[in-house]
Amino acid sequence: MQKQVVLLGCSLPDSNITAWDLRTGTNLTSYKPSSSSRNGLCCVGRDYLAAAQTNKDALHFFAHHKDQSVQRSFTVERTAALASSMDGTYLAAGGASGTIYLWEVGSGRLLRTWAAHYKAVSVLAFAEGGSVLVSGGDDTLVNVWLLADLLDVGLDPMSAEYSRPQPLHAWCEHTLPVTSLAVGLGEVNAVVATVSLDRTLQLHAMSDGRLLLNARLPCALHCVALDPGEHAVYAGGSDGCIYEVSLTGANGGSGSSSAHPQGASAGSGASLSELSGGSHVQRMEGHSRVVNSLAVSLDGELLVSGSDDGTARVWDLRSRQAVQVISAPGAAPVTSVLVMLQPLHLTVGSGGAPGGGRPGPKRPAPLAPLVKYTGMAGNLKAWQGTPIIVDGSVQIQHLSQTCGLGAPPTAPQHPSLPWGLALSAASSSAAASASLESSQQPGAQRPSSASEAEVAALRAEVAALKETSTEWQALHAELYARFVAVVQAPAV
């Protein structure tokens, strides 16, 4: 498996983001300057990092092959929470006023701002596919937003009929500020784990909003992470301990439960207790101050924790023992921890020296300066769209739809219809519909005999296209039925 690196973000004014080898603990490189807030460091696609600054109203962007920031974008207010969609298309930031800002990274346009919380936004996270955004705030609320609603072009803030976007779910079971959240796999069928200063760890189903688990732990909780297989959830506490709650125990995941681990040793190690619902709780000790951030390795074998004590610890999840202790430069509080595959163009061994770096990717992802206000075009002209990279990694059908070249919604959308035929049929159908609408508008000039003949020909063409689409659908259904019959037939 490709090597994994851990990124540590610190909160002191003159701090750097440092990259370390996850297995050996070797310092690979540093990115500076960056004073990262808790929940304020994220990967933007495959080529960049973004960090919300604690000492200024700005976002710093870093490329993996350079140790200096490649872009600095200024925001309307101080932002503490930051999240990016997995493909790096969208970037969301949460402000102290409770407002969430959503940018398109390739163009820099500010697509939407809306009052999402009554107090400061403390944490943001995208679902795996990027179609859902989850936010938590100091107002104790956790909101689930559909990106399709946020990007609706009909939501014009200047319109008299404008109303702010409404969340798909709004969970209010926490009684103190929400400090962290983690979204599992499965897009809208995923589970969402949240922790709060009220000492509770909660698990919700995104599909219907049900509360699956409400575990009360011994101290205030500041961070949470899900096991890749979603067999366990990990929470970092203000007492320096990490609590592992099993999601596979008997009766686990229903009702409310509490856990109070007792009798743990003073040294680094683990202790065992049990939730009243039957799920087990393991406690891993080692940090001397509050645990700010958690991240699980991609293979699910290691857990990385960052703390105010100036260290990051790498834990083996089988033995629940610390196998590496990484000290942050200057003993700065570690506020953010990220684990990712080692980028191909990562600068190794520069030590953060000025001008250090190596040649970057030939086709880096588009990154434009982020604008501060909605309606601003940024560096793009009015007629220009978002830049894209054509490198063979995107299917042609998806790419064509992204560029606006795909079949319009009026075209027959069916998996059995070849894409070229669908595009041709869509173009003809759209042209016919436009001609019919223009000819039927009130006040339009009475068409001549030639125009009437043209309209009749277009009507016949539309009817023929509909008939062709119906034939393709019937053929697909017949082929599918035959295939199912062959598969289900008993073997001779």
What can you tell me about this protein's structure?
It contains four helices and 30 strands. The strands form seven sheets. The protein has a five-stranded mixed sheet with strand order 16-17-18-19-23, with no helix packed on it. A five-stranded antiparallel sheet has the order 20-21-22-25-24, with no helix packed on it. The longest helix has 40 residues, at 449-488. By secondary structure, the chain is an alpha+beta fold. 39% of the residues are buried. The radius of gyration is 27 Å and the shape is globular.
| Biggest beta-sheet profile | 5 strands, mixed
Beta-sheet strand percentage?
35-45%
Give, in spatial order, the strands making up the sheet with the most strands: 16-17-18-19-23
Number of helices: 4
Shape: globular
Class by SSE composition: alpha+beta
List how many beta strands DSSP finds. Answer: 30
- Which whole number gives the mean pLDDT? 80
Spatial extent as radius of gyration:
27 Å
N- to C-terminal separation? Answer: 43 Å
Show unreliable segments.
Answer: 250-255, 260-268, 351-356, 395-432
Helicity, in percent? 10-25%
